[in-house]
Task: structure prediction
Amino acid sequence: MSLTKSLAPDEKIKAGKLGTSLWKAGAGIAAVFLGISVILGSMQGDHWKRFLYAYVIGWTYIFTICLGALWLVMLHHIARGRWATAVRRIAEVVSCAFPIVFIAGLGFVIPLLAGYQDLYYWAHHDAHDPILNHHLHHKLSWLSPGFFSIRYAIYGVVLWLIARYFNNKSREQDESGDPKLSEQMRVASAPAMILFSIVTCMVAFDVLMSMAPKWYSTIYGVNFWGSAMVGGFAALALLILGIQRSGRLVHSITPEHYHDVGKWMFAFTFFWAYTAFSQFMLQWYGNMPEETVWYKYRLFGEWQWVSIAMLVGFWAFPFVFLMSRWTKRIVPSLVFFAVWQLVFHWLDLYWNVMPQYDWEIVTRGNVTLNAGPLMGNIAYHHVGFSPVDVTVWIGLVGVLLVGIGRNLKGNLIPTKDPTLPMSLSHEVM
Amino acid sequence: MSSAEATAEGGHDKGKAREAFRAVTRDISWVAEAPKPHKAWLAALAISSAMLMVGLYSIYVLVTTGIGVWGNSNTVGWAWDITNFVWWIGIGHAGTLISAVLYLTRQTWRVSINRAAEAMTIFAVMCAGLFPLLHTGRPWFAFWMIPHPNDMGMWPQFRSPLMWDVFAVSTYATTSILFWYMGLVPDLATFRDRCAARGQNLKALIYGIFSLGWRGSARNWHRYERAYLILAGLATPLVFSVHSVVSFDFATSQLPGWHTTIFPPYFVAGAIFSGFAMVLTLMLPLRHLFNLKHIIKESHVEAMCKIMLATGMMVGLAYATELFIAWYSGNLYERFAFANRALGPFWWSYFAMVGCNVLAPQFFWSQKIRRSPVIIFVLCIFINIGMWFERFVIIATSLARSFLPAQWSYFSPTRYDVGLFVGTLGLFFTLFLLFFRYVPVIAISEVKGAMPEAHAGKEHH
Amino acid sequence: MAHHDHNEPAEPAHGNGDGELYGVLAEFDTPGELVEAARKVRDAGYTEFDCFSPFPVHGIDEAMGIKRTILPLLVFCGGFAGTVGGLLLQWWCNAYNWPWNISGKPAWSIPANVPIAFETTILLSVFTSFFGMWILNKLPQVWHPFFRLERFGRVTDDAFLLGIEAKDQRFDLARTTKLLQDAGALAVENCHLETDPSRKNMPKWITALIVSSTAFALIPFAVAAKARNSHSSQPHIHIFPDMDFQPKYKADTASDFFPDGRANRGEVPGTIARGNLAPDELFYRGREFPADRSQYNECKDLAADQPCWTRGFPQQIDVSKAFLERGQNRYNIYCSACHGHDGEGKGMIPQRMAELGGAWAARDLVTTQTVITMPNGQLFNTISNGFNTMAGYAAQIPPVDRWAIVLYVRALQRARNALTDDVPPAEQNNAASQQLKAPEPTK
Result:
């Protein structure tokens, strides 16, 4: 509503040492857990395969959190948002972690370039066998380590430039208070949104969907985006809480803002379920072998329990409880669901990636060939949980915290944004 | 009736807010209260009812003769009928989006158009429902689709997407009508009180019956607002589900060009896209004729143009994704289906689709164009046509070139295909014109609630 | 609602006439002032009061102390009922009452039931919120005392009103009016209930309209009730004729066209229905045309083109243990009811008939000499076409199975008439075997 407030006079709005302590803590976590992971990964005895699979999941996880933050920033501008002004700087800070996230991603891109064959089947030399893989043959120039890495670099640069643009303009406004800057950001947010959408879909296709290179689904990118937004908003809620716990922004960010973050989390929980169901139901109904193979490995055997956990944990439970106004307004309750959804967002990525871990070796004559993922008997197809799955994840979250901490400086709130007074007095109807 | 009193009692500031509210009531009620309808309105009504007659005649011939009067064949079993069905349903979705999604996301500019957009939804769903109903061949047996105990011992086949359609579309129609009516009640009470004050007792009685004795009580408003919010919250997933279910009609099949997982969100985006085009097609002329430019403001029209640009880009992205995955999949049939769309016998409809849906909205990048009603109107017509072609491309090109080359065929509409489509346009515009004349066309109470005066009080602003 | 017809214009600040006092109504200039006044009235301890405004005024719920409605909870319950109901409906129809194979999917396919369960959830939630809201608001309510005040007619236009009812415990006309005036009211009016009883009545024409429209509405029900309780020789009404009346003959009807007056046309002589051509005499009818007839007692004098009953089996038949077991199985199904499992003609039906005092003749197949000596072909023919009161089984039992039964009957006969020599030598000293002797043949 149009009642307005200004910043409370005793509000602490400077990041101060918060950023430094955050990135130091993140660096510590990253060093310890990635160190443990390297040890565990080498003990796995599978030539780093498990480690790299877990690494792709962990990298996608921190990437999606930045993606969610960037999307909120752009949406806020494109829709002339009001409520999010108070939390927008925090989202900008998160989105500025893109460079570090993309550097961290080199952890799986460089092995790929160096000729590592066991992560992506399309990088394996048996993928070129035209009889074994005639549906793969035509796209191996697209799915080649070289071209993949070039695209990876393009995605990184595009997202980094978008995030940097909004962050710089926003901080510029802190100095000058020029309302024209809001206008510029609003104009820029439209093409940025288009680039963002294309990059998000392509990352989903390249990094995750190509794990099962013979399988395809047009909605995959949209579904990935839905899951990413759940993670992004959940992480934002936690970060806001952390900043408030340090005594900063205690007056500016109110349960009203948590409520709205919770609403978006709820909306995307629903949206994720909607797209996931669409993908599943259409492939189940169509019942075409080249499509159902992907679900065959997830809905039977050990993986069916993970699928059920996803249905209940990532959708049903949070969906039913987040429907209520109070679960979103009472901060501890919202934080509980934010942590819950962050765990299940990870499980979603795990569920997307790990069933491809088991490849089948076939023998034709005297030649042993690798038929790739989703090719074996589901009875021999295990979840095969390994501690390295979790330690890599935590280690990469540490990397994300470094990225966030490095940018957590100056004002924690866009002090001179013309919409700030409206955001401060925001009330959810 | 009370301006004299207000002036007498009012000080400098006193009465100013009330004056503003009164002006809103007057300006909106004027449309329905003018003793003689506008000449343009009469002319439009004459044209649209003539179109409706064409449609009624086409239905008469269809029902008395059979589906054979259409151009449908064994190969192209769905053609104009289902194209029109999907097109109309899609148009309806903008109304729900404006009334529900924009409400939830607190876009206050929606109040100037939500009433008309919701009415448009209802009329569009009515038109849409006609097509599958008539395509059954014996519409009088349509009640068999509703599960009821019967002496044949038969039940509907709930695993069929066409059955899902029955439930989705009827739920959607019911919800849209209830939502629309609920929003109307306070405004019908306004009409009731205005008619009573002028001594038009019969009109007051009719508006009185439909306004249910509404008296603007704060205790009533409290529950009313909560119910409105809940209905908006329910209508949002509903609108997603309806067009998703419509897309399932195609996507659950194995036909190349139909079976693709992106259909649900892509259909929803397309529906909103075409719906906004239709909202503007209707509202731009009416806004001009009935002097509503200070209520349906330039900025509102601009916002709608931007939404069309955004949803047009989403549709474009979906086209691109489909093409990319058709290549990526390595599936021979999939690749052929998409090559056939662009280069096959229906190539002209493919280019009409891409031209109207992806290229035409690009003009909305320019603010100058977003502010010139004539150009917007023309572009909206293009988008309406383009979205019609999108459904036609999906339906006809895929069916005409399915797996068996011996079965390949071509589709040409007959005069009854065209006649029925024209007839639904007539039905739609006739109902809309009647609505415009007899019902509060703009949500009076919501416009007032969104005015700055509504928040004037002790607090500064 | 057309209250103005019956009312004189209200007198400002005094109200409307002299009936019992219903309450007072105060007007305020802006929504903000209304909120402030509502807060003052609530703080003064009033409970029976309400605010009236053309749109929902922000902050008034809190100022008036309105409790949050339970509507969301009701809607949640309604939606839950919709989900469960939608799933149950689909399960009952498609998986329980009439299971039906659709593209090989399970009868109860949950993924395919999700869309409809979703729609029923939404539908019931919508109904609960829409109708629940009106019920909780106690609407429709066609009449309210405040409607009698002309000022109240502006509540849907520009008036911000606050009404306090006289039934409130703290209500005191002078004090309450003062409170409202102090809160900044533009005007305060009294509202009286109607005293003249004739004005309380509904206008006669409305009563007449309701009565007559109710009567008209009952007509269809009356017609339906009459039709259900009476008989008519008329055919039922065909609103949509579909293809019910076609220019064609139905079976067994009369015709003027054909000389025999029947619509049915007989078969052309020699017509054989599809699949019924049985050219193999031996296999289908058990007959053969032997060149050498010396072994064929009953037909050795007949001409060469006359058939004889075969004594062996057709060449299609593989006389094996499996075939014999097939014969046993068929015999037990079709024949044992009369002839008994052992072939002695003492099946359940003859036994039961004897018990009831009647007689059901069933031939003893294993000791009757004519049956024992009957050629296989004739036995086959008897099974196919019947004998005396026994009906033919050609329609029920395919030819191969009839041959199997013939074989089994032969086995029964052989078993019933076995001799000690038939027992393997190792078993011959067995007591049971000792009792075997040649049976006394009956006629």
